[in-house]
Amino acid sequence: MSGEVLSQSEIDALLAALSTGEMDAEELKKEEAGKKVKVYDFKRALRFSKDQIRSLIRIHENFARLLTTFFSAQLRTYVQISVASADQIPYEEFIRSIPKMTILNVFEVPPLDGHILMEVNPNIAYAMLDRIMGGRGSSINKVDNLTEIETKIMSNLFEKAFSNLRDAWESVAEIDPILAEFEVNPQFLQMVSPNDTVVVISLNTQVADSSGMINICIPHMVLEPIMPRLSVHYWMQTQQKERLPQEIAALEKRIKSTQLPIIAELGTSTITIQEFLQLDVGDVIQLDQTIQQPLIVKVDDIPKYIGQPGKVNKRLAVQIIDVIRREEENDD
User: What's the pLDDT tens digit per position in 198-239?
Assistant: First the structure.
């Protein structure tokens, strides 16, 4: 029996059929106990787990927020972008689902192999182009005859926009998106074989009064090297990687050789600008502490020690006589 919910009228009809003998309860039990066969379509091979799909959605939700900020600043108008869905489908099915003439940006993402595709609906693309050219953001779909200037403006805009993917992916992989190709006809675009699995993240996009979709198509082969990082165990991992002994020794050596500025402050004084302008050779400035009082020794302008002046081998020196505790630092 199927797992769908029956209405009250269907339940009444089923009970009536059982009571009149039209249906045999024993046969229904045998049918229920029989082997269940689940249909599997090998053309739609599922390469990503639900956990990995959720991770990709989280990454691209962050990407959508970055795009919203970027386009709002570039276009100086209302822009709202959010994740609508994330599906894994054959590449051929994705190509059939997008318009015959659209805006296609193909990016390389080194050090990962392969390409990532960003498809922008022409309604959105022309609204953005109109805003950049000083218009109100109206959309005129004439993607089949883009001029060289329009192509250059659009490719530059989307190349800068897609660079935000670097920040969205930084917790998983260090990538460097580079625009490799700008195309308008998906039939001329063959990134992977038709049956290869791709993840398509669809972004709902609103630019002024125009709305449409931006689709990010990521082939499985691109993500394959970093698939373990898309699991929940990677995201929730809290244990820190233990450093090797030689790494710890090298770090200690570098810290010990770091130079710090140390200042022994003899005292301070406050004078007026008039007095400062009248200073001359031989004049004496009276400090606010006597020679019997200890000196404050500062490390990188932070009071750390109490010392007293003296000489070592005929050179001026400061002897540390006490350490300033945290409470004393706060009092200063």
Answer: 999 999 999 888 888 999 999 988 888 888 777 765 555 544
DSSP string, 62-81: HHHHHHHHHHHHHH-S-EEE
Render the burial of 118-136: b for 16+ CB within 10 Å, e for the rest. Answer: bbbbbbbbbbbbbbbeeee
Reported as a single tens digit per residue, the pLDDT across 8-53 is 666 777 777 766 766 666 666 655 555 566 665 555 566 788 888 8
Q: Give me 231's structure tokens.
A: 């699991």
Query: How many C-beta atoms surround the C-beta of residue 12 within 10 A?
Result: 11
Tell me which fold the domain 254-331 belongs to: Surface presentation of antigens (SPOA) (2.30.330)
Q: Does domain 44-236 have CATH number 3.30.200.20?
A: no
| Cα–Cα distance, 233 to 86 (Å, whole number) | 21
Which two tokens mark 216? 């990010």
Query: Could you give the CA distance from residue 7 to residue 12 in angstroms, rounded to a whole number?
Result: 9
Which pTM was predicted? 0.57
User: Which residues of the chain does CATH 3.40.1550.10 include?
Assistant: 44-236
